[in-house]
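Lab meeting, item 3. Inverse folding demo.
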């Protein structure tokens, strides 16, 4: 009896990090491995009563299908606004008119919008509640270290506990400590840009339109939320963003109006705007001994195409499927074959999306009129090719290539 209580707590999998990636992975593994399996999500932030993230994410169709299959979507659907159309302009700040160079109708299948805007806090809080209801342990502490071994990984938590796990998922964000501890390097750079995020109320309805103005300082996106509200992602060089945020609210509103325009009537800033520094980062490997990197710990990209967490959720779908298939065959879920399968599945897609978002940001950041002319001709060509547009939409929705089951809306 005495000896048994000395044995470390044993989990099938521990998620280090309970952001959108860590929580959705825990829910997916619960579905795949069933009620007999034991999971924990360790994150010091889980001691907060509610999320304070003021961002909203464009959740692409594939990610929405995953949330539906996991029972998350029914809890957030009331706060999700479908994107019915997307318009892209290439303009300067002072331009009197901003002609639309590229537009997308918002459906991947008849009646299925290619994305919905959902506040991050709504998603985070809904998944936390669901994780509790499904018996996933939420440990309000950080993973401080780990030592992998043939039978499992021995973890050291900051609160002193030392549980063991067959699989450790590093879902601990862009500055992943676990990635560093595993000796996995990154390729990356700063964009020297920050994204100012805020919620704006406006007089007239937005009609479900998402608009992205490619301005010389960086993209300025208006993304529809429920009611007469938009989420703004406004990219500026880092010093300019800091200067803008230091302005009195009335002057910030004037600057905002110059970019937002008057089409939706009077506007009002509804929360306290925040700036997020932007960079590109790609881990040199997504796996190590009994360890998988998931979400921003594996890749961080520019929010220009609203793809960051969508890529993280594709990681979740692929890893959960590889683990579930292995468990059903009675194999070790943290074994090298499972992890290799995950890495092969995710590596190419991630690199391709990382390169595409990096290239877009650079292309639209070029200020010369000659470059502007060439890119506008390019956008004009894409605009005239419906098959190419529909390919882009399916790909951005996470439905291109060999999608894991959850992204097709199928349970594991
Ligand atoms: C301005 C902006 C707009 C964006 N818009 C979109 C969008 O529209 N669509 C989209 O798909 N993506 C978007 N993204 C990207 C998206 O927000 C991120 O990809 C996503 O939040 C990353 O989630 P994550 O769970 O991987 O990491 P995080 O959200 O960073 O979570 C990591 C968690 O790990 C915890 N943690 C850290 N260290 C440890 C440790 N040692 N042990 C335990 N826990 C630890 C932290 O407390 C944190 O809670 C946007 C990003 C920005 C900056």
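The presenter then showed the designed sequence:
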């Amino acid at each position: 009896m005495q000896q048994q209580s000395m044995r470390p707590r044993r989990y099938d999998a521990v998620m280090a990090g309970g952001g959108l990636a860590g929580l959705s992975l825990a829910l997916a593994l619960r579905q795949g491995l069933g009620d007999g399996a034991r999971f924990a999500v360790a994150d010091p932030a889980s001691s907060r009563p509610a999320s304070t993230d003021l961002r909203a994410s464009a959740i692409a169709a594939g990610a929405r299908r995953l949330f539906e299959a996991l029972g998350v979507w029914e809890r957030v659907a009331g706060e999700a606004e479908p994107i019915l159309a997307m318009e892209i302009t290439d303009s300067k700040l002072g331009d009197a008119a901003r002609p639309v160079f590229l537009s997308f109708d918002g459906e991947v299948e008849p009646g299925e919008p290619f994305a919905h805007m959902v506040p991050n806090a709504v998603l985070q809080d809904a998944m936390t509640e669901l994780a509790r209801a499904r018996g996933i342990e939420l440990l309000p502490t950080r993973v401080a270290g780990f030592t992998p071994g043939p039978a499992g990984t021995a973890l050291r938590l900051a609160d002193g506990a030392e549980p063991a796990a067959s699989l450790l998922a590093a879902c601990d964000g862009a500055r992943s400590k676990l990635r560093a501890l595993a000796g996995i390097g990154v390729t990356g750079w700063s964009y020297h840009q920050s994204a100012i995020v805020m919620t704006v109320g406006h007089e007239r309805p937005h009609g479900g339109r998402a608009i992205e103005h490619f301005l010389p300082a960086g993209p300025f996106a208006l993304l529809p939320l429920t009611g007469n509200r938009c989420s703004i992602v406004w990219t500026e060089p880092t010093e300019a963003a800091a200067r803008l945020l230091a302005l009195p609210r009335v002057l910030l509103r004037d600057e905002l109006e110059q970019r937002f325009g008057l089409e939706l009537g009077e506007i009002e800033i509804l929360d306290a705007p925040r700036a997020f520094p932007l960079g590109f980062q790609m881990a040199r490997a997504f796996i190590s001994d009994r360890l998988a990197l998931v979400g921003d710990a594996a890749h961080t990209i520019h929010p220009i195409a609203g793809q960051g967490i969508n890529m993280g959720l594709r990681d979740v779908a692929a890893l959960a499927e590889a683990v579930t298939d292995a468990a059903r065959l009675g194999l070790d879920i943290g074994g090298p074959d499972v992890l290799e399968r995950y890495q092969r599945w995710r590596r190419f897609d991630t690199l391709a999306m990382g390169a595409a978002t990096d290239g877009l940001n650079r292309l639209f950041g070029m200020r010369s009129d000659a470059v502007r002319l060439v890119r506008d001709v390019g956008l004009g060509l894409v605009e005239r090719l419906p098959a190419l547009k529909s390919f882009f939409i399916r790909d951005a929705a996470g439905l291109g290539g060999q999608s894991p089951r959850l992204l097709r809306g199928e349970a594991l």
